[in-house]
Design goal:
By secondary structure, the chain is an alpha+beta fold. The chain contains 16 helices and 19 strands.
Length: about 475
């Protein structure tokens, strides 16, 4: 692990105060805790808490912080909402937390065809603004209410949105403003709707997992809001649901925007909270998009017909907005609902299949963890995910009474099994980034030469290795 010099916290506080102002930096223990803890809380150590939490207003203030930090070899951790499920928010060094919450502007330019927004703006807020103006926001993480634009862009995650239908954020991002670890302010990309051919550093900051710079502004192409149609199909077993998705791709149907899966174990808590009758078994729910409502409904009915042919025991073309809202909430909040019912902490894997092996992958994730020392105690797992994106989330609720060492052992089992399956299918996670606790997988999946190049690129941008060092941890 890289070693960094120790600094008196008061000296760091005074230096950062001179940059962002006293009211925008704090050394409060509560704020330092809140801005350092990730989803895997058991890894946080008091002696590794940051010196201070700073909230810069713009790229200029970020630049001055980075220059100061580089000169003194003080780690800087960029913080949005801290919802990273890959462990990228699990800090292991003292340093400066750069909280993006003040960089929260949203400016819509319909006459130019794009919107510009700050990394600290929450995705749900951007979505509401754009939908009010008649546009679609192509990023929909499960944590959409709290997840920030910067984190989504850094991971290049579309989350619930199915990649073959809408692509990834990088397919819409025209350019970004970013600050390098050594303090240079870069404006990359274009203001035209035609993105650059050839060299374009935008691609390093979108999906770079925070390794190469701090994104301070994002320019996103505006996508007209489509018309929607909704459906739900219930099954007695999950394999016919997987076969339905296989046929959707093999028969060249237009994929939907969303196609989500819930097994009965995962569905029951959410359906109960939403006042819905318990499903007979697993279900899939989907949202199709078209230029007209008739177009969207026709796409939806095509897929519903496939689910019936594959053995769905009930299919519903949803026309009641309230019913759809409740079913969608049961899926979108399936993890929190399960955690609430079992009174513990949810941990999840992301296993991604190829189209032709989707049923095989389903069979694997259903029993994932069954024979493991820790996860076997929690079996059966909760299984949900983005089935239309060929992505499963086998999940487990760690009991509140478990000590930290048992929780850590369970997390290690999850990431090891996830790695084994994704390497078997020659895939990788499409939602949470490939760093943090996935670094070992990345090295094994893509080989030492690939990993060495990433290390070299990081060193070019960040010779002192001070920006988000725990995202690409030493091993």
């Amino acid at each position: 692990m890289t070693q960094y010099p120790d600094f008196p916290a008061q000296d760091v506080l005074k230096a950062v105060q001179q940059i962002v102002g006293e009211q925008h930096v704090t050394a409060s223990l509560l704020e330092r805790l809140n801005n350092a803890v990730g989803i895997h809380k058991m890894y946080l150590r008091k002696e590794e808490l940051p010196y201070v939490v700073a909230r810069p207003a713009d790229a200029q203030e970020v630049s001055r912080i980075m220059v100061y930090a580089t000169k003194n070899r003080i780690p800087v951790f960029v913080r949005g909402s801290g919802t990273s499920l890959s462990g990228a928010s699990d800090y292991r060094h003292k340093g400066i937390v750069l909280n993006t919450s003040r960089m929260n502007h949203v400016n819509v330019f319909p006459e130019r065809g794009y919107v510009e927004m700050g990394p600290g703006r929450r995705c749900q807020e951007v979505m509401t603004i754009l939908e009010g103006a008649g546009y679609f926001f192509p990023m929909h993480p499960g944590s959409v209410r709290v997840a920030t634009v910067g984190g989504v862009v850094s991971n290049n995650t579309s989350a619930h949105v199915i990649d073959p239908r809408m692509g990834k954020p990088k397919d819409y991002i025209l350019g970004v403003e970013a600050v390098t670890p050594t303090g240079e302010i870069l404006n990359v990309g274009t203001k035209s709707l035609r993105r650059p051919a050839g060299l374009d550093l935008t691609q390093l900051f979108v999906g770079g997992d925070g390794l190469f710079g701090v994104v301070t502004n994002v320019r996103l192409r505006l996508e007209p809001l489509p018309k929607y149609a909704y459906g739900v199909a219930f099954f007695e077993d999950g394999r016919p649901a997987a076969r339905s998705v296989q046929r959707m791709y093999q028969e060249r149907l237009m994929p939907p925007l969303f196609l989500e899966y819930l097994d009965k174990h995962s569905a029951d808590p959410g359906f109960e909270v939403q006042g819905l009758p318990a499903p007979v078994g697993p279900l899939i729910l989907f949202q199709f998009a078209g230029h007209t409502e008739a177009d969207a409904k026709a796409q939806c009915e095509e897929f519903l017909a496939i689910t019936r042919q594959e053995g769905a025991v009930e299919t519903v073309a949803v026309t009641d907005p309230d019913y759809w809202k409740r079913v969608w909430t049961a899926r979108a909040s399936s993890g929190p609902f399960a955690a609430q019912k079992a009174q513990g902490l949810v941990i999840s894997a992301e296993v991604v299949s190829t189209v032709d092996r989707l049923v095989e992958a389903y069979d694997d994730v259903v029993v994932m963890g069954k024979d493991m020392p820790m996860l076997g105690q929690l079996f059966p797992n909760y299984l949900y995910g983005h089935l239309g994106a060929l992505s499963f989330h086998p999940s487990y609720v760690l009991p509140a009474a478990w000590p930290d060492e048992d929780r850590a052992a369970a997390v290690a089992e999850v990431f090891r099994l996830e790695s084994e399956l994704n390497r078997r299918y020659e895939t990788c996670g499409g939602e949470w980034g490939q760093t943090g606790r996935r670094v070992a997988f990345y090295r094994q999946r893509y080989g030492p030469a690939n990993f060495a190049l990433i290390r070299q690129m990081k060193a070019v941008f960040d010779p002192s290795n001070i920006l988000n060092p725990d995202v690409l941890p030493d091993e």
